[in-house]
Amino acid sequence: MQAITENTQSLQYLTFQSRQDCYAIEILSIKEIIELGSVTKVPLMPEFIKGVINLRGSVVPVIDLSARLCGEVIEVGRRTCIIICEFCISDNLIEMGVIVDGVNEVIEVDAKDLTNSPQFGAQIRADFIASMVRRGDELLIALDLEKVLSVEEMAELIELSERGSHLGESA
Amino acid sequence: MVDLSEIQAVFIEEAKELVLQFEESLLAMESILPNSDDEIINEAFRAAHTIKGSAGVVGYDHIVDFTHFVEATMELLRDHALNPCEKLISTLLECNDHINALIKCLESNEDFPQALTDAEAGLLESLKSYSGLQDQASSEQTVVENQEATQSFRVSAQFYKACMVDGFDPLSIIRYIESKGSTVEVDWLIDEVPALNAVTPDELELCHFRMQLEIHHSTREDINEAFEFIAAESNIEIAPIEDDKPTPTLVKTDKQPTKNNKVKPKNPERMMKIPAQKLDELVNELGELVIVSAALEDHTKTIRDSALTEIVEHIQQLVSDVQSSTLQLRMVQIGETFNRFSRVVRDTSKELEKQVSLEIMGAETELDKSMVEKIVDPLTHLVRNAIDHGMESPAQRADSGKPEYGTLSLKAFHDSGSIVIEISDDGRGLDKEKIKEKAIQRNLISPDTELTDKEIANLIFEPGFSTAEKVSNISGRGVGMDVVRKNIEAVRGTVSVESVEHQGTCFQLRLPLTMAIIDGFMVSVADAKFVIPLDMVTECIELPLGNGATRQTDYINLRGTVLPFIHLSRIFDLPTNPKIRPSIVVVKYGQLRAGIVVDQLLGEFQTVIKPLGALFEKMSGISGSSILGSGDIALILDVPKLIHDFAHEPESRKLANS
């Protein structure tokens, strides 16, 4: 955090809409944006796992961002699309799709326009927020992708959800 | 000049094989003690010699220095100046481990840790203690010292023609010489180089030139060393220059390596080394091709053009041929892996003072190279366990009327699209009562659970289970069997155990042949498509009428036998369509047979397995995914897991249904 605020160079962010809120993701971890095609459902998954897609021959999991952030399943609309993110966690290259309600634009932000996240008051979990981006009078939430798309955490949620459904069946 | 790091990588690969070869020969030597076999000793000598030689070529002096002593000892053995004994071979085996450790350090680009250096001193000490060597080593020392006084030489070399084909670059030899003295001039004699238009393609790779050089401040030893590997075939002349006048007598290289010393590959069949990654890429691309050709076939069906159909069929045939030969490239015989265990068996049984002989069957059985790498650890664990827990001490064995020598056998064979590896011993077998007791104590089962013998035996794979009362160095740390099972399941395999008390234990690993491509049988439930590995499917039948959702029991009478079945829609929580009459796919896995109820059968097709990645790792019931010709994704069912879950949850299921 400290490093970012002291850095004077400008950073690029992609802004997008998820429900009523506007978020930003640093552009370095975005591979491409594709339209919402057919997503293959994987059985017994928690709501935020939308399924998997075929991205030119590789199978990529797709996350419903709205469900992941605030537990409400996305309603597919005209501007709904998938942002394909690519980032490294401990030497493993993670490729994952994120469904959002539409992308807005790529903005250039001066490092001095980044501020720390508020202690409370945000709609989403505090550790999902990397920083706040000041944009004129507006404040956007820059997401911490490594946290939001934490494979470890989501895998555990998947396990829980599976076990839950098995229990539900036998109860 | 060729990139040195590339050569070093080749050296490391080669050295690893040589270390294995050396170990094998040493073990062979040990097994025929007190006799000795010249051929085996020669083989071991060659391996040590080649390690030293090629380490020298790539400049790993540390390995050269150490291996030199090992080689010298082997030389004594070869010349019968020293007789092999158990202790000597043990020392040599330790040296072999040491070389291996050095190579590993080089591979990971680490510095040699202090422990290694310390161990090395000890090993050298014990090597030198074999009397003959002491003299040899010191005499060699004096020889070197005698020649320490440097001289000037004129060297003329006629390289043997195929030297470059064999991997010797004259240039690197010259470079080496240059480092051992100061060369004044190097003349390349090109009179024998044919005109470019007269060269046949075969001749292009040959070495046509000769070379002459003058070198000062060098020793004959050093120069000989430079030509060591090509001296036998090439014509090398080294003449000392005294007072700037060449001596009239041309002395031939005095070190004439015997035929055995040649670093030529023994196998006349030309082999090629390919990085595994390139092969993986090829398999991946081939996977894409398979998908596209399936798409092409799909589309052709809608066009109804007979000529086109014929071409497409031809292409499909070719693709499937290419596919099988590509997969063949990755196949290796399991024997090489099995042989490694002779060392494990030897060391473990020595340490535990048991007498065990290893029997290997089905060494020629082939499986995927990547699979081999994944199963070495679990296999090692099982082998050690068998000796530690399974085998009795010789005295106990004699008491129970068994031969003192226990037999541990490794057996591999193919069985309906899987490879089966069995590790069996004729030891004391599993103590069922003790296992049950332990399982109850650890809350793995409730005391009143009725279990068959087989189920009890398989409890040892549950996490946190270990019956060893005392923790030994070898096994019994409680991390054992469940890790074995996890590793095997990670490659879509299964492990089970059968045991007869006082007669022995048999572990069975069942593994898929390859991890890349499967023949699948596609089914659908609601909108979702699933793939069942074809080699597990035995037949498909219609679910008998009136037996659908209204049924209380989930089994049918299949030609006189009871066939339990599961509803995929129920397990995966998918909607059911009452209009569709479901079918049952009968699957078999090992001893288990079960039916899977699905909405529709969509037929066979070949598909590439795409892993679902870390995110879905803990998911059960699905083992992977595959891309269909249409671009859609189908999920591959983890049949063993489904059957396993079913077999272990019938009671809770019955309760749920009643």
TrEMBL record, chain A:
PROSITE patterns: CHEW. GO terms for biological process: chemotaxis; signal transduction. It comes from the Bacteria. InterPro entries: CheW, CheW-like_dom_sf, CheW-lke_dom. GO terms for cellular component: cytosol. Pfam families: CheW. Signal peptide: none annotated. Residues 10-154 form the CheW-like domain. PANTHER family: CHEMOTAXIS SENSOR HISTIDINE KINASE-RELATED, CHEMOTAXIS SIGNAL TRANSDUCTION SYSTEM ADAPTOR PROTEIN CHEW. This is Chemotaxis protein CheW. It comes from Pseudoalteromonas maricaloris.
Automatic annotation (TrEMBL), chain B:
GO terms for biological process: chemotaxis. Its EC number is 2.7.13.3. The modification Phosphohistidine is found at H49. GO terms for molecular function: ATP binding; phosphorelay sensor kinase activity. Coiled coil: none annotated. It catalyses: ATP + protein L-histidine = ADP + protein N-phospho-L-histidine. Residues 1-106 form the HPt domain. InterPro entries: Bact_Chemotaxis_CheA, CheA-like_dim, CheA-like_homodim_sf, CheW-like_dom_sf, CheW-lke_dom, HATPase_C_sf, HATPase_dom, His_kinase_dom. Keywords: ATP-binding, Chemotaxis, Kinase, Nucleotide-binding, Phosphoprotein, Transferase, Two-component regulatory system. Residues 243-257 have a biased composition (Basic and acidic residues). Residues 277-515 form the Histidine kinase domain. Residues 517-648 form the CheW-like domain. Residues 243-267 are annotated as: Disordered. GO terms for cellular component: cytoplasm. Pfam families: CheW, H-kinase_dim, HATPase_c, Hpt. It comes from the Bacteria. Involved in the transmission of sensory signals from the chemoreceptors to the flagellar motors. CheA is autophosphorylated; it can transfer its phosphate group to either CheB or CheY. This is Chemotaxis protein CheA. It comes from Pseudoalteromonas maricaloris. The lineage of its organism: Bacteria, Pseudomonadati, Pseudomonadota, Gammaproteobacteria, Alteromonadales.
